[in-house]
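Amino Acid Chain and Its Fold in Token Form
===========================================
Purpose: to set a sequence beside its fold so the mapping can be learned.
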Amino acid sequence: MTRRDLIALLGSTVAAWPLGVRAQQPKAMRHIGVMMSTGPESAVAQTRLAAFMQGLQELGWAVGRNVRVEIRWPAGDAERIRRDAVELVALAPDVIVATGSATAPPLLHLTRTLPIVFVIVPDPVGAGIVDSLARPGGNATGFTTFEYSIGGKWLELLREIAPAVTRAAVIRDPAITAGIGQWAAIHSMAPSLGMEVVPVNVRDPVEIEGALTSFSRSANGGMIVTGSALALTHLNLIIALAARLKLPAVFSEGMYVVAGGLISYAPNSVEQYRQAAGYVDRILRGEKPADLPVQAPTRYELVINLKTARALGLDVPPALLARADEVIE
């Protein structure tokens, strides 16, 4: 099933999901907590969540019959993440699913006994979430999204699709380990490509718009959007600014390109949520997180939006198009 098919199948059904899915439950009912990283208005996050719920259903778990799910949407806000973590841990679910490197650490600070399955975490060892990928060692395991070195690949792609670009604004969240790591990889690659890179913090819309508007006043600029909950929260703004300011942009998530971004190179995050359902199922049936190795992506997808390329006046090189896993017309 393609990403577009998945959105068509699931997106409309989850857009109206409440913060918690509850019913009168018998004592045998299992309980799952879910900590998303954005607000519920994010179409990308809703599609990810739909994949997780569908994965549970395929494994025999039906909401209201044998499982209940409590969902929190902290919208990338650190204080809300801490508050929601306290609430979820207090509910003592059988397992908690945590999105990204900003949500798992606060949960682990509160509990070293409740099982936690994380998704879309770039460096769980460096972030102190697990002891090692092969032997997590504690109450958490899950799915890592990419190594920080992919940042260099994003910079190369920016030059390949927009050869005139010599400057790149790098949108990152400096408050998380992943934001620092991705920026470091991009910054270290820049001299070899003759590129100038400028960090742009992603804390709030006013800061993003001001920084990118100022950056765009000089010629030959482009943009790299690294992975973070705040980047996803402000995705529509970032895509709109890239179009208005004529900044070719590389994204850390294929669904950003479906939403109108130019190009991405990344694992399929929706598939990670489906895989997370498998780990949750195994934990609910008695396995321990410490015995489930952290899984890394085995496939990366190159997605290109030709409509966006034409709007930016770019001729996508045929060799790049030939490598694409998905081309959006």
